[in-house]
Amino acid sequence: MSLVTVFGFFIIIMCIFLILIILVQNPKKDSISQSFLEKNFKFFGIKRANSFLEKITWSLSIIIFFLVLLFNFFLKLKY
Question: Is the pTM of this model over 0.70?
Fold first, then answer.
């Protein structure tokens, strides 16, 4: 396996993981029922989970960005 294949594989895995993390996050809606439920979520730690998932989302986005840059660099070296 070449280095280009390995980077391509990691990019695909990170993209799938990013999609799953985004789907797990709660939508941010400003409705009456959401504001009522928000008070209850504070007791169960949902607020912290959302901020943790948001940090993972940003981290995965940055990792994918740099993996794509490295992928293009190694692809140009190969050909």
Answer: no
